[in-house]
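Table 4 source record.
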Amino acid sequence: MGRFAYGFDKIRILKFIPYYCTKQYFPYQFSIILVLNTFIIMIRKFKSLFVAAACIAIAVMCYTSCTFNNTSSAASEIKPMVLPAPERPTGQADVINLTTPKLETVRVGFIGLGMRGPGAVERFTHLEGVKIVALCDIHSDRVEKSQNILKKAGLPEAIAYSRNEDAWKQLCERDDIDLVYIATDWKNHTPMAVYAMEHGKHAACEVPIAISVDECWQLVNASEKTRKHCIMLENCCYDFYEMTTLNMAQHGLLGEIVHAEGAYIHDLRSLNFMNPEKGGYNDWWRLKMNEEHTGNYYPTHGLGPVAQALNIGRGDRMEYLVSVSSDQFGMTAYAKDKFGADSEFAKQTYALGDMNNTIIKTAKGKTILIQHDVTSPRPYNRKHALSGTKGYIEKYPRPGIALDPSEVASAKFDNLAAHSFVSKEIYDALMEEYQHPITKEVGELAKKVGGHGGMDFIMDYRLVYCLHNGLPLDMNVYDGAEWSCLGELTELSVKNNGAPIAVPDFTRGGWNKIQGFKHAFVE
């Protein structure tokens, strides 16, 4: 042991340890061997305890340096995975604040009359300045049911399209339609919206508007090329509570919003396994999504409202995300209990994890948590939380507001404490004070018409209002693309052990063009 195993004597060891550690020629395991060998050499060769102690200190510092350099180097090499982004075609320009000619009457055609479509048809019968021109569904009996809605409202029968799988194209090709309203299964959303725009129609589509990043780019390019509106119908942005908290955020009650949370927690097991002939999803399409995909393909109910509060697309953008899912347990357990362990449903493999957590980082340093769970017996929950420098608010599981006990706030309200929610009296006063102007205007009618408590009607009302007045829509094609692209991106992250994935900039640099989200009104 008078010499080191590789032929270095004690002087050369002391000379080269720092060099090799700095250059990272020694791996983690070898650095431990180096320390032990050095210690043995010191015991045998050195007589001075002082020198021995000094050598030990040097060895420990070298070991620490090696491990620190290795750790910091590994951390610096972790960068988000970036998906290819196409350049904007020549001749196209952004549609961030797109306005189109005013429409005195909005002539609309509906595609998809299963679960969501009939409700939309019924709501439109309560809107002024609209004409329902055409109805389309592959099942003719569904078209007939929607015709009865028109008849009940005292409106003329619409042109019917059904049976033929391409009948929807004929609807889009009509020259007496301004708006195509799409409420089909997810896989048809993008093809139908693109086709509608290519044939001179504005497109309004249920969520998610796309199920792949490529589809998102198709929608963006189609809207930019045709100069037609393309709006994703995210109804939760028009919920009374969400609109009130948006108003609070925009008026600075919560200070600068730093973090937000949203979710879609909704037990859909019975509906997923329900026979389509008895009211389930057409052709089992949602069950098939559970079989084929993981991640979060339904993020927009939780994401949309908080994205508006954070001014996403209007001064900030989602930069990257990381996503992790639990394994799948709920669907199999439910199928075994409901249909038996030997049933086809119980034996089927389901890719969708029961619980998905996705964390998003924005360009301005904010964070967003989005959750998804449709396979557990949990109470319905969209979370909806906004956390700012001066306050916090959440909707689920119990609505509450907490305010920083600053001089300004304390002068207005008594007994404020950041560690607890404000009293019911203060809460009610704040909700009244910050009620959004739109819900003040149309809220009572919305509650009477219905649609998830009225938010669906407010959504349709705003769409028609903006088209009537030639105003920018509340949500543009970039919102729909950015919110919907989480489907593919979260699946990619989950399949790669939670790797960070870059969120494409669908505005191609225009996200900072407008500062702050706002609804457009006639001046």
